[in-house]
Amino acid sequence: MIIVTRKGVTAEELDHIRERVESYGLRTHVSRGEERTIIGCVGDEEALRHVPLLSIPGVEAVHEVLKPYKLASREFAAEPTRVPLRDAELGGRALVVIAGPCSVEGREMLEATAHRVQAAGARALRGGAFKPRTSPYSFRGLGEEGLRILADVRAETGLPVVTEVMDTRQVELVASYADVLQIGARNMQNFNLLTEVGRLQRPVLLKRGMAATIKDLLLAAEYVMSQGNPHVILCERGIRTFGTETRNTFDLAAIPVLKRETHLPVIADPSHAGGRRHLVAPLSYAAVAAGADGLMVEVHPDPATATSDGDQSLDFDEFDAMMSGLAAFAEAAGRTLPRAAMIAG
Ligand code: PEP
Ligand code: MN
């Protein structure tokens, strides 16, 4: 249930409305916009069904939330959510590009990648230290050593780092290094893990499961938010269909659908969606045209030798070219794309 208050509602009226709602056992969450203040009511809506809420002073309108997700729903917040990323933020006008290798393979390769992607305009560095691999015999990441390298490269460049946490037992460790906790596609419905990262205030990058509906994704976000962590970034990374020409099927329409359904920032991962290097630039441009707030792109100094996802990783020159091409799409979408010179200045 969402209560929209009258313009100019007083603090006393607001308190009174909240007290009334809370007296029926629901929790309230206030979102203040420039024009309006909105009170989200979480809990058993049934208990409020016969309460004459419209008669309470200060109430203008009452909307039933039929959607199963509340905290994540567009109506719940007066403004789009902006997730802080050190000096940057995701969800504002600036398009945020997160780039880096699929896996942290060593210090030198991560340093080289960080410097090059930063110079091209990336605002955050990605890299997996704990890797979910389909085969147990594939490279599964450097573990804590990878996290240490990420933190060192952050200290050197100032780039916030995004890295995956796969297990509830690793949350504390990964959070002690990472700026953003990535929940991978395979873990999108690991409800214990979602609950655990929800207990922190650290931003969470939630990737869409490969067989997840948009509603499933929003309910996964709701898990995190219901624990008190409002900093969730949603990521469309392709879903499984019957096609074989691409690794996954990029669900482009999911971006405008999500932007309509939720106030949370939405980004796209063209690397996992396409699975082929030549698809990364066109899918990135399409995502931005469709309204994405950012992109996450895999970049490797020498993709041919990458321990994971080499076929979909861009080399440095390809990333530069992709970023140059992106500028026009960002502008057409009403976005700013900060250039490296501006970041340094
Ligand atoms: C990744 O980002 O490297 C990754 C494993 O992604 P996903 O969970 O989307 O497959
Ligand atoms: Mn990958």
In short:
With 345 residues, this protein is α/β, with parallel strands linked by helices. The protein has helices at residues 11-22, 107-119, 144-157, 171-175, 191-198, 214-226, 254-261, 270-274, 277-289, 316-332, 340-344, and strands spanning 2-5, 27-32, 37-42, 59-63, 83-85, 88-90, 96-100, 124-126, 161-164, 180-183, 204-207, 232-236, 266-268, 294-298. The longest helix has 17 residues, at 316-332.
Structure, explained:
The protein is α/β, with parallel strands linked by helices. The chain has two domains: 2-64, 2-Layer Sandwich (Alpha-Beta Plaits); 83-332, Aldolase class I (TIM Barrel, Alpha-Beta Barrel), CATH 3.20.20.70. The chain is 33% helix and 17% strand. The protein has eleven helices and 14 strands. It has helices at residues 11-22, 107-119, 144-157, 171-175, 191-198, 214-226, 254-261, 270-274, 277-289, 316-332, 340-344, and strands at residues 2-5, 27-32, 37-42, 59-63, 83-85, 88-90, 96-100, 124-126, 161-164, 180-183, 204-207, 232-236, 266-268, 294-298. The strands form three sheets. It has an eight-stranded parallel beta barrel with strand order 7-8-9-10-11-12-13-14, surrounded by six helices. Strand 2 and strand 3 (37-42) form a beta hairpin. Helix 5 packs across helix 6 (214-226) and helix 9 runs parallel beside helix 10. The chain is elongated, with a radius of gyration of 21 Å. It starts with a strand and ends with a helix. Bound molecules: phosphoenolpyruvate (PEP) and manganese (II) ion. Phosphoenolpyruvate is lined by residues 102, 128, 132, 184-186, 207, 237, 272.
